[in-house]
Amino acid sequence: MTATDDSRAQVQLAAIAAIGAGAEDLVALDVSQPLPFADAFLIMSGRSERNVSAIADAVEDKLSEAGPRVKRREGQAEGRWALIDFGDLVVHVFHPEERDYYSLERLWKDCPVIPLEEALVR
Fold it and tell me: What would the pLDDT profile of 91-103 be if each residue is shown by its tens digit?
């Protein structure tokens, strides 16, 4: 099984919002095979605590406008990391030190990468 077209569209929309708020080093992973509760993870970094919070807010606002509701939000209080669970898509925003510590890309290295639209990576 692979991530649905809806999930892939949500990844692209979330990435657009995140980059607009200053997110860096975005990676999207198709986690539908090993996980029964999500299709995709979108992982990114923010430069500071304030930036991490701003990115999380921007992603939540953009996706909520498009329809998906937040099922759970964690970690944003201190601005070092934020997890926003939209059901099929889980967005992870990290301060660089926390991203290195949790190393989600290494943990999920066997999962296929979901390509981000070329306009996003320029």
Answer: 999 999 999 999 9
